[in-house]
Amino acid sequence: MSTEQIKFSLFDYFSGSSVGIAEVVSTQLEKNREVPKGFFIPTDFSSFFLDAKGREPYWSRDHDLFARAFEDWIEDELVERGMTNSYLVSGTRYGGPYPQSKERETINEVFRAWWHILLDSGILQNEGTWKRG
User: Fold this and answer.
1) pLDDT per residue over 52-76, tens digit each?
2) pTM over 0.85
3) Cα–Cα distance between 106 and 88 in angstroms, integer?
4) Which residues pair with 130 in a beta bridge?
């Protein structure tokens, strides 16, 4: 088995964004908080990655893996609150190209931690962040 790992880098993914990831990192460092740089999925144990690898190349690109993992987190967060939104997300809980079981839970924990960092930074409440200039 390969020990290759796929890195989902939050900073690489959002590097072209106007969201101001540098501001988030700076704020977290000033507060002496850990700044996650990404998370890893070991490919020799990842049914999510192995399933994607067995499909067309589109399914195994880093940003597409990230997007499907994020989509599955959103659906789980909605379900935990007794909510659904089929326009936003639907069907990630039934297998296919989405993380499942313990792997899904682990990925969701990382996204939840990342979300709390964004909330704590105040960047989501900063109106200037969202204005185009």
Assistant:
1) 888 888 888 888 888 999 999 999 9
2) no
3) 22
4) none
